[in-house]
Write a structure and sequence with these properties.
Order of helices and strands: HEHEHEHHEHHHHEHH
Largest sheet: 5 strands, parallel
Distance between the termini: 32 Å
Number of domains: 1
Strand order of the largest sheet: 2-1-3-4-5
Helix content: 40-55%
Radius of gyration: 18 Å
Number of strands: 5
Shape: globular
CATH superfamily: SGNH hydrolase
Number of helices: 11
CATH class: Alpha Beta
Oligomer: single chain
Structural class: alpha/beta
């Protein structure tokens, strides 16, 4: 464990110099869950991949996705972005997404996974740390084998407790969470603070696993908790489900993750 932490620390120290030497990719893929599919981001229920923080391509949405930022600097990527994320996915579902990105020969891959491993019916049904670790490790190993020259970006998981803190006094949010059964491990009105802290502890463990596993690969860049540390305002959360980022939230996510990437100014 100590060795992995040391590797991760060295990778972070080396990051500023790495930015200048890593070439801009000519293709990319997004792996993950509903957040990367921009689920409920605007206007109607469901996926809205054009608004994705990672591979979104709507020029008028106010979101400067990683794809759009890269395309502005390297037009050869235009039309070569793939959103392989699947709404509802857990870390266990990454293998199929990895296979898709390998078949697409993606030169840049973003990963945001873990929210559904935390957001279950209760704290007792969350994915175990051992299973999460093995699933993430297997996914990154497969990416390394299938796309050995690709750059991989791993985002931390957004702070679910902070979402609860921002919206739990909102009547409409509480009602939607309860009726739709959204993330009851954290958002159930009947939860005690002790139960919520169980989710906080598990999320901290998952983020550490993401950091340490990414740190084992020279071509993998961890966001250094940029997403986890970002405090989404209530106004940046979808009023369709009071859980997913809306377009303003996707724009913020695109910015904080890009600023942790190889190519940030």
């Amino acid at each position: 464990m100590t060795g992995l932490l040391a590797v991760a620390s060295l990778a972070l120290v080396a990051a500023p110099n790495a930015k200048a030497s890593v070439p801009l990719p000519g293709s990319m893929a997004a792996l993950g869950d509903s957040i990367s599919q921009a689920y409920d981001a605007c206007c109607s229920y469901g996926d809205h991949p054009a608004y994705s923080w990672s591979t979104g391509n709507d020029a008028s949405d106010g979101i400067s996705s990683h794809y759009e930022r890269i395309a502005a600097l390297n037009p050869t990527i235009t039309g070569h972005q793939y959103n392989d994320a699947v709404t509802g996915s857990k870390a266990a579902n990454l293998p199929t997404q990895v296979s898709n990105s390998v078949a697409q020969n993606a030169q840049y891959v973003t990963i945001l996974i873990g929210a559904n491993d935390l957001c279950t019916s209760s704290a007792s049904t969350m994915t175990s740390t051992a299973n999460f670790q093995s699933q993430v490790a297997a996914a990154l190993a497969s990416l390394e084998q299938g796309l050995p020259t690709a750059e991989i970006f791993v985002s931390s998981i957004p702070n679910i407790y902070q979402l609860w803190s921002a919206l739990h006094t909102n009547f409409f949010a509480r009602t939607v969470w309860g009726v739709a059964g959204i993330c009851q491990s954290m958002l159930s009105a009947s939860n005690t603070e002790t139960q919520r802290q169980q989710v906080v502890t598990r999320e901290q463990a998952f983020n550490q696993i993401l950091q340490q596993t990414c740190g084992q690969y020279a071509n993998c860049r961890w966001d250094n908790y940029a997403t986890y540390n970002y405090k989404f305002a209530a106004s940046q959360v979808s009023t369709l489900d009071y859980f997913h980022p809306n377009r303003s939230g996707q724009a913020a996510l695109a910015t904080v993750t890009w600023n942790a990437s190889w190519w940030a100014a």
